[in-house]
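Help wanted!
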Amino acid sequence: MKTRSEVEQAAHLLGEERWTVWMNCGVHDWRRLPETDSGEHYCPKCWTLWTSDGAILHVPDQPSANKR
Ligand SMILES: [Zn+2]
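Answered by r_m:
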């Protein structure tokens, strides 16, 4: 079982790739996703987190959208 900080670290390591992975995931059925030891759900592909009541915790940033 992963901790929330391990999931956040994995998300960080994906970097800009994470946006592509996230788009490929489509709509998440977060209730079916694995849980961290502190009760959040996470996607093992794009490493997005949800709280136990389904609030999404960190959506990936779209690369280049904020660059200028
Ligand atoms: Zn995902």
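OP: Thanks! One thing I noticed: Helices lie at 4-14, 17-25.
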